[in-house]
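Final report, closing paragraph on structural work. Over the funding period we assembled a curated collection of sequence-structure pairs, and we close with a single example.
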Amino acid sequence: MPNASDFSAVATANLEDRVIAGVTAERAARTRISIDSAAIQLTDTIIGDNERDLADTLRSIASDIGVSHIAYLRFAPDNSEDTSLLTWVVTYSRSWQCRYLAKQYVQVDPVVCYGRHALLPFDWSKLPAHDLAVKAFIADAAKHRVGRHGISIPVRNRVRAISLVSFSSNCLKDEWASYKSTNMTKLQQLSVLIDSAANIDAKLPAEPVKLSRREEQCLIWAARGKTVHEAAEILNISFGSAKAHLDTARHKLHCINLTHAVAVAIATGVIPAKALK
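Its predicted structure, as stored:
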């Protein structure tokens, strides 16, 4: 017959199970996100009621949903590896964006390489990282706080364009696992909205673009990682003039933000790559 210690052990085990279940439920509740605010912001962008730079909107959304960064990448219609045909909007630091372009990391970035053909969401931890160039890229990304953990969600829209929306975080491993399992459906819904917002007025120039001398100078300094204020001081012009030149260059290139404009200008030869050295 069972003795008192047996009943005590069973009671203790049941209590421990309830505590674990309670902690798990509490953690899930704590990481459960709402995308209502994000949906409103992105819908306003889609219908033209939000004039903010999309990268700024994504920064606000990243803060709202508890991730470190959001990155959007649209591949070329024919899935070409030509970097001039890529469109991206990211919340990473300007220094990382410039370094990524200068180092041509798009050629070795495992998220981009795998995501180009992916059909389902994938966690960054599942990607192969044996190549030395890939290891170097991952180490460099870590130094720039891109995020210890990440998930990328492929999006295919009605015109068969292929895009990739990534969410990254610096939280603990078990917290990231809980966050993903709790919010995957909402992250997928959010990815579709981000793709729609990014496709508003985001066409590549159909003809060769010619920038004015000042537009080219401002864009070159932006490509070197300088802020608008810094570019204005270097060129001895007002902040308003520098911003106007950059905005004009961006519109001529049919780009949705300054990072996109720099990438297209370099890749298409509008500004010479040697000017960045």
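The radius of gyration is 23 Å. The CA atoms of residues 231 and 237 lie 8 Å apart. We thank the funder for supporting this effort.
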